[in-house]
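Morning. Coffee machine broken again, so started the prediction first thing and wrote up yesterday's gels while waiting. Chain of 101 residues, entered below exactly as on the submission form.
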Amino acid sequence: MERQAAAFKALGHPARLRMVRALGGGEQCVCALRDVVGLDMSTVSRHLGVLRSAGIVEGEKRGTWMYYRLRLPCVIGFLQCLELQLSPDSERGGDHAGLDG
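Came back before lunch.
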């Protein structure tokens, strides 16, 4: 349960969610992820460290750059499910049936 809670906590920031979504399309250089989120390199590296510690991504250094990929590709399906179910257009959006009891 602790590792699952850590994964949810790691996903709890918009910049980290954007990076995870980008990695859903395949491996990315840290420089590309910096462009995705529009933050400075040190902030991007910190966010990636959080995702790595939670076991969501893994990285590999090649030359002077780090390349990241999803370690948990199932996260993409979960995020797509959330987007679909929580969208304002969804007939189920906002419907919390089954969550109260």
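The chain has one domain: 2-86. Going to sketch it on the whiteboard this afternoon.
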